[in-house]
Structure formats: structure tokens, C-alpha cells
Amino acid sequence: MRRLEEEDVERIVTVAGDLIGMYLVLAQLSELLGVSLYELFTYVIRFWYLIPWKWIVEFYPFWIGLHFSLLVAMFADMLVNTYYSLRGRYLPSMTYTRLICIYTFFATLLLTVVFRTPRFYVLLFLSFLGILHTFFYPEVYERG
């Protein structure tokens, strides 16, 4: 059996971190919309045109709408990072990734205070792990 090399371990850690980040984003989106993750996928896949985007924007305050947009952008970034990590390539986006993780932590902290939902305590912990991930494995993102 082949021994894991340092590059393989870094790739595994990167993919795991991005998958946790994608779960964090999806869980926050489902919580903001008031649906389960399964319902969120059902809405997106089957009823994309029925999602009340106008109602979401008008009903929630501006910061939640901004947060919603940033969550979608973060999910896309993590999806691209995961794709390139699985292919053995790395994106030099360390500063961007750190900013995303720090923003997600503070946004989740704010949502935890506002909504006081037990799921947000788990999301808060996962977002903190995301910050630690970017500080302990910076060389993964700094390669070209």
C-alpha cells in the first residue's frame, strides 16, 4: 500500500475544509429561508422559478440580503476550490479565502445572536474551524 505523501494530505485537508464550508453555506441559506436542506435542494432543482426572490429581498433587511448574496458567492468559490484541489491544482487565493472564513464566522455569530437557533451553534463552530484551516494550511492556497 502506498504511503500518503504530504501533498496528498494537504489535498485531503483542502477538500474536507471546502466541503465543510459548502455545508456551512447551505445550512445558513436553509436557515435564512426557513426550510430544511432537503427542501432547499428541492426548491433549487425543481422549482427555481417559483422561489420568491422578490419577497426574500423585500422581507429581510438589507444586511441579510447582502449576506445571502455573499453566501452564494462563497459556495461557488468553495466549489471551484474543491474541483481544482481534486484535480491536483491549487488556487492562489489565500487572502480571499481567509476573508471569506472570517466574514462567515462573524456573520454566523450575528445570526446566532439574532435567531438563537441551536443549529447556528454548530455552524459557528464549523466557521471557526474554517478560520483555523486557512491559518494552519496556508501553503495549500499559496501554490500556483
Would you give an account of this structure?
This protein has one domain. The protein is mostly helical. The chain is built from 7 helices and no strands. 81% of the residues lie in helices and 0% in strands. The two termini are 30 Å apart. The chain is globular.
What attributes characterize this protein structure?
144 residues; mainly alpha; 7 helices
Shape: globular
What pattern of helices and strands is seen along the backbone?
A: HHHHHHH
Count of helical segments?
A: 7
Sheet of most strands: none
Q: Terminal Cα separation, in Å?
A: 30 Å
Provide the number of structural domains. Answer: 1
Protein structure class: mainly alpha
* Number of beta strands: 0
Helical amount? over 70%
Radius of gyration: 16 Å
Tell me the fraction of residues in β-strands, as a range: under 5%
Please tell me the overall pLDDT: 65
Low-confidence stretches: 140-144
Topology:
Elements: H1 6-33, H2 37-46, H3 53-59, H4 62-86, H5 94-115, H6 118-136, H7 138-142
Helix pairs in contact: 1-4, 1-6, 5-6
Question: Gist?
Answer:
The chain has 144 residues and is mainly alpha-helical. The chain has helices at residues 6-33, 37-46, 53-59, 62-86, 94-115, 118-136, 138-142.
